[in-house]
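=== RUN LOG ===
request id: a7f3
mode: sequence -> structure
chains: 1
length: 710
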Amino acid sequence: MRGLQKLGVTTIRELLCHYPFRYNDFSRIVPISHTPLGERSSVLGTVVEVKVKRPRPRLMVIEVSLADDTGLLIASWFNQPWLQKTLVKGSRVILQGKVEHSFGFRRMNSPLHTSLADDADAGGIMPVYRANAAITQGWMVRVIDDALARIPAPLDPLPPRLRIKHDLMSRHAAWRAIHHPPDIPTLRQARRRLAFEEVFFLQLFMLLRRMRRAAAAPACVHRVDGPLLEALRRSLPFTLTADQHRASEEILADMAAPAPMSRLLLGDVGSGKTVVAALALAAVADSGSQAAMMAPTEVLAEQYAGKLGPLFDAAGISWALLTSSTKARDRQNILEALAAGSISVLFGTHALIEPDVLFARLSLTVIDEQHRFGVEQREALRAKGEGSDLLSMTATPIPRSLALTIYGDMDTSFIRSKPIAGTITTTRVIGKADRRLAYEAIRQALERGEQAYIVCPLISLPQSSPEAAPERDARSQEGQGANRFGPSEEDELLEQELITEFSEEPDEEEGHIQAAEQEVRFLRAKVFCERNIGLMTSRLKSAEKRQVMEDFRAGRIDILVSTTVVEVGVDVPNATVMVVEDADRFGLSQLHQLRGRVGRGERNGEVFLVSGTRNEEARRRLGIMERSSDGFELAEFDLRLRREGDILGSRQHGAATLKLVNVIRDADLIAQVHAEAKRLLAADPLLEATDHHHLAAELTTIFNPEDARA
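=== RESULT ===
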């Protein structure tokens, strides 16, 4: 049972929901002597001989001779010693692979295989399950078959009306078909039924949670046509884009409604989400209440205050900035003014959720890069104002289907177009041996009076490693072996937004990993000796980070070597070149966030992604960065390959219940199910109808009470 527990299986229901992750189609068995050469075929035979060969060190070959009534076939597997336990002499085996002919025999290299019991039917579509060392595929098949045979046909939790409308088979039939599909069309029907169910329950859960929140306290009905909002609009030095205008209208309409707003504003890098949030903050001031805008870092919070503060001053909107670095006397003055209601807008970081930060009437909470905060932190701030509106923002572009899946209890507004036209940022993938091209681009930019970033995946290398020596020549050390993440990098990894989607340990031939502290020393000594080079990592104290960024903005630093703390929000228009070291260690969304730091002014940007990886999949992913500058397109590309939890860094509430759904492939299904869930709750918000009783019970089974209260 420990093996099942490691797979997250502790109940019969969880066992039946442990779906195959793929299938081997052995439905067309071909006699060995009739297999066409050069094509894939499935053969069934008896193992007559098993040989273990070691042609050279580090190479083991398992060679199996398989015979049927028509002939003999030899199959080989490389460095898979565990096959000796499953492919034994006398066992019946199905093999599937490309058939070649050499040394007088038909052969298959590394074919798919499945072992059959003596009385098992041959062929068919065979499930393949995620297993572990304690559980074999055969054992998993037997225990699931036993569960299917023992349980009676359960009452279906989906109302009959929904099943008829969407032509869905029963749950019991779907469970049987997904574990033992008689054919591909039936398998598709089973998967569609169970995927519909997964999304439907998740949508119901999130929408019910939103309804409970709305009923908990009355909302503030904001004034959205007041003089302060109009004054802010007049003071803007630019015209809103169509996307910004539409998003602003959606947000203001929610704020004017009697129910609490819960809206997610999604926008690509540089799309102008900040000004849209500013308009919402101005509406709060017109309503005589207060707003809080929380950012994940002090640098970002100070940047918002620096950008919006002068606009608010011109419009007559009172504001303040509160962070952990705020001096004690200033902090006390801010807290007193806040409690008295004389501050309309408070910018800040985690400092806003401290118990002594009290608002006279908090009616709007704006949380930027909301996925960087825990659920408890977000709720702690929102709880400072009963019935307050919530506007969450993220610069991580995600498709609408993913937004519905993860944030089904929030309305969504998208900003896709960028307000600044005329500037272009080009991206180029180069090998480590071609790093000089990136250095030359930096040199030319510096001669024009511009600035550059160099981003590294690590803060520093372990001191025990030879590459950690300050005097080392980094370029001569390439190929000396890969360095692993050391414990000293723990804080940095926590600060990264989407660290290492598809990250892999590099091959030893690919060279060491670049680290920021060593990179600064190397650049100062070997490459840009005459230039001022700064360092920004999460190890710096808040005051040190602030000083580094101020020096960089003021032009006192020419090149800023950094980790991903510059990933979101940092705005230095004079920075035009970025070099990302070991770019294959970052996800596409994170790379897109990073390159958004250049080309933010009147000059074009250049980004060089340096990678020594030999992994074809990683190189293909980096190639997408050269061809596309659309964050939504990049996110969709990543999602075609991975599940939604991976792209967000961690699973949100309820998302772990999605075992079959792919948010790109199933985009239409997700939108359809979301609409059905909203219709059902509009008609029966308490799930009291007779045919909804099983729905309510199922929700209780899937989602524990802690989730329901979140």
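=== NOTES ===
The first helix runs from residue 2 to 6.
The chain has three domains: 22-128, 227-415, 425-629.
=== END ===
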